[in-house]
Amino acid sequence: MDNKKKAHFGKYCITDKEILKYNDGEKKYTKVSDLVKVKEIKRDIESKKNSIILQYNYKGSIHEIEVSRGSLSRQELQKLLEYGLDVFEHKASEISKFLSIQEQSAPLEYYHTHLGWCDIEGHLTYKHYELISRNNELTSVYSGDLDLSAAGSLDGWRDLIKNEVQGTVTLEMALVLGFSSIVVGYLAQSIEMESMVFHLWGDSTKGKTTAAKLAASPFGKPSQSIGGLINTWNGTKNAIINQLTNNRGIPFVLDEASMGSFKDFTNQIYQLASGIDKARMNKEAKMRKRETWATTIISTAEKSLLANATQSTGQHIRLLEFDNITWTRDARNADAIREGVEKHYGHSAPIFAQYLLDIDFETVIDLWNSWKQVLMEKLPQKDNFAERIVKKLALILLTAELVEKSLKINLNKEGLSQLLIEQNQQSLENRDIGSKALEVIIEAIYQHRRKFDRVYNETDFPSQGNENWGQIKQFEEKTEVSILPKKLRDLLMENDFEDINVVINAWKEKGILNHDAGGNQTKATVNSKRVRVYSLSLSKSVFSLKDESSMKPSKKLKSNKKTTLEDLFNNEA
To answer: What is the DSSP annotation of 220-231?
Structure first.
């Protein structure tokens, strides 16, 4: 046997086919088993666990298998017999001894399965296909299901952005939304930060999916194929959350909500934005570790998610919808973008992350605060949630500025700002829970008008039938509507208003709720009895009670669904 083909490890040596051991008595090497050796050690930088790539000879062919390091013990080795390893019981002890020696000289490779920002041994790093750190002092390669390797070229991607994206503010917005995931994860390392959730909806010709692919292209393969970054709503809630966990800086795209099995997106919106999985028990009835994430989530559909969720202000703060926007210029532009990002992807996100690493955290915060101030001054209308909303919108403009500086891409920040402000104005109307709830109640009163006692000056119209919901009283200067508490609660719940107290407090702040001191209710005569009611003071023109048969909402209320609370309780003629 040619010694040049042998590798020695103490008393052991290996050839390309077998393990040998030197026999002191016979003064020669004797066979221990067919070849089994540690080709490589892989260390998970997150769990700190090691796995082993074993290389072995089975019937003259070399094969590989990845096992845990614990599999190198004598007892565990025998469990690998089914894969063809020559580790029968009488050989296992000797093979285990050999592997414990040979492992020491095997190469060690680090890998990660989590993505985005993390702290490793005091070093802030960004985990993409490779590990990105300030001085590149750490190395690790991604070992997961996503295709984050780069394809095509950075120059090819830059040309695509220059020719097909720049100059169209909606496409620039899509690009910035993708990059914002890196900024969200970066800030979440130091301050409390919710994930950003954006929903792009409208009919199928609006270019939503193309915009989503553009947003994903800096990071990896922008498709729904195996390894692609485009996911779908067509799965269970737990499956979606499992895909999202431990993501702190890669955009998470959910395409076509209409494909999903969810009828009510309330819980999904809350959980996606919260960045933390719900509490669960493991098989041993102990609390499982709750998984987390901090990134940007981009959803697309032909319908609004908020229209399929409960009427809650919190939903409109956590989810920002872009309503019926045409994202691409035309069909040619859409085709060029899709073809371009499928050819060139995965290059620019690492450059952007490296840029963030190389500047001070305080610099990023100062830029963010500057954009908050700019947006707050530009908002034409503000509500109690303006500061929370501006915090999110300013992060998008902060991202745009950082993209310009790191990648030398000129963006229309003024146009992006205006688009965000327009989106906020639409959201502002929907966040007014008091107005929306009042519209529902007025409509219900009209539909069930015969269930109310009605009073116009001295003329009474008692309710008709066995059920009585309250009383409507017409004065010269106003209309007063009194509703029994249980019926008001039922009406609001039937129309997806989760918390009656939120609605009542909104009415109280607007000054349309008549109430006793220290409470939210008052007393009224309903069905000849004095009872507790919720009483609303509205415009005198909301209903016409002179003719009992013609009672109906005012023309203004019927024709304009976005009637404000001021319209409804304005006492002027």
So the answer is: S--SSSTT-SEE
